[in-house]
Amino acid sequence: MLIKIYPENPNPRDVKQVVECLQDGGIIIYPTDTIYGIGCDIFKPKSIERIVEIIGDKKKKSTLSFICYDLSHLSDYAKPIPNHIFKAMKKTLPGPFTFILEANNQVPKIMQSKRKTVGIRIPNNNIIREIVKELGNPILSASVKDDDEIIEYTTDPELIHEKFGNRVDIVIDGGYGDNVPSTIIDCTANELEIVREGKGDVELLYR
């Protein structure tokens, strides 16, 4: 199913429909402030397994990140972090950054890496943030990749629907996506280590 939702003012009825789908164990493809993502409720292990199959990378299971509405979710899923890291997150989020933090026991084991870490994303996109807010807990975040090695990421939601529509429950058309992923920052050593430089001004982290 392809649902058009406008980022400026997401229709609450559409948001509710997507949330009900997630609560039933559904899988959605959604826009962010970078590339389109594929996700489900983080407390639905069977749905997470389905996503790992769809993206075709078993190794990814333990490195999946998730999307929160705001920083108030932080203490629910991550161990306490130093003040300078919290300040960096506050300055850059919502935004195109993924922060790798030490996971606490609330994070489903299927989503923890061997190092017991978790990636946190708060995209600057009203559609997915309103969905997470209505759901009441984070959703899984994995990139929707293209088979084309040159393009890497599909930006057109209609083309995404053509490719994945029969494997997921809902594809949200929130307009064209970007083709540059988020910047990933590892904070587990209590420092800001850039693992992948993507979209976003990394200078902001150190100001």
Features:
207 residues, 10-stranded mixed β-sheet, alpha/beta
Structure description:
- With 207 residues, the protein is of the alpha/beta class.
- Helices cover 27% and strands 19% of the residues.
- It has six helices and ten strands; from the N terminus they run E-H-E-E-H-E-H-H-E-E-H-E-H-E-E-E.
- The protein has helices at residues 12-23, 45-55, 74-77, 83-92, 126-135, 157-164, and strands spanning 2-4, 28-30, 37-39, 65-67, 97-102, 117-121, 139-143, 170-173, 183-186, 193-196.
- It has a ten-stranded mixed β-sheet, sandwiched between helices.
- A hairpin with a 6-residue loop joins strand 2 (28-30) and strand 3.
- Helix 1 (12-23) packs across helix 5.
- It is globular.
- The termini are far apart.
